[in-house]
Amino acid sequence: MVDSLLSARGLNKQFQSGDEPVPVLVDLSLHLEAGESLALTGRSGSGKSTLLNILCGLEKPDAGVVQVLGETFDTRSTEAGSKADARWGDLRRQQIGVVFQEANLMPALSLLDNVRFRARLAGQSEDGCQDWLERLGIGELADRFPDQVSGGQRQRAALAMVFAMKPALILADEPTGSLDRHTAEAVIGQLFELQTRHGCGLILATHDPELASRCSQHLDLAHLPET
Ligand SMILES: Nc1ncnc2c1ncn2[C@@H]1O[C@H](COP(=O)(O)OP(=O)(O)OP(=O)(O)O)[C@@H](O)[C@H]1O
Ligand SMILES: [Mg+2]
């Protein structure tokens, strides 16, 4: 049997606010096949970034199972945390492309070198890196450093980094949050085109209902359970 791309079951996560536990994710499950896209919506603070962090191993759920690209991460497992962290690390380097809410580029590298570095880390060719910057409308900024460009331009460079690694799964946290409507549409067009062309999975946290409607699945985290 071929595993699905991503499956999460019974995810629970709470944070502490003073002495009070604050439930963020309660018994949440989702399923994504290759070539599918899932929009995560919900008001600010509803847990979109927390869920994305769990789905790429940067945050641990209190309970639940994540199966991704043939690997299983189960909070009931007795496996040492460092081993699971190493498996998550390999997945993020090679197969899961994450675009964070705040673009995280290496400050000492130019935009182009950031993209090249990311491609190399994933075992991909550096040949198309400049092309990705062009397609995202920032080709002429290739030699600038991250602190010499705007937030929206950094966000597009972060997307170019993910595109260049040719991932099996893309997790994007409000990837057009700091872009104007026109630029956002162009960037999202590239994202869906890449997803269709490579048949990768895409999970997108967004406040934009129009964008959410373009995804094949929709998960609304707006309704927190009664506490
Ligand atoms: N490390 C943390 N410690 C304590 N509380 C946290 C932590 N990270 C997130 N939270 C809380 O968990 C809840 C969910 O946060 P999260 O960042 O996942 O929301 P979000 O849906 O991504 O919001 P936004 O749309 O503003 O980005 C919020 O109430 C937040 O304050
Ligand atoms: Mg968020």
Automatic annotation (TrEMBL):
For molecular function, the Gene Ontology terms on record are: ATP binding; ATP hydrolysis activity; transmembrane transporter activity
InterPro entries the record matches: AAA+_ATPase, ABC_transporter-like_ATP-bd, ABC_transporter-like_CS, ABC_transpr_LolD-like, MacB-like_ATP-bd, P-loop_NTPase
Q: Does the keyword ATP-binding apply?
A: yes
Keyword Transport set for record: yes
Query: Gene Ontology cellular component?
Result: plasma membrane
Record keywords: ATP-binding, Nucleotide-binding, Transport
Q: Which domain of life is it from?
A: Bacteria
User: Sorted alphabetically, which SUPFAM superfamilies does this protein's record hold?
Assistant: P-loop containing nucleoside triphosphate hydrolases
In this chain the ABC transporter domain maps to: 6-227
This protein's name: ABC transporter
Look up and give the organism this protein is from.
Marinobacter maroccanus
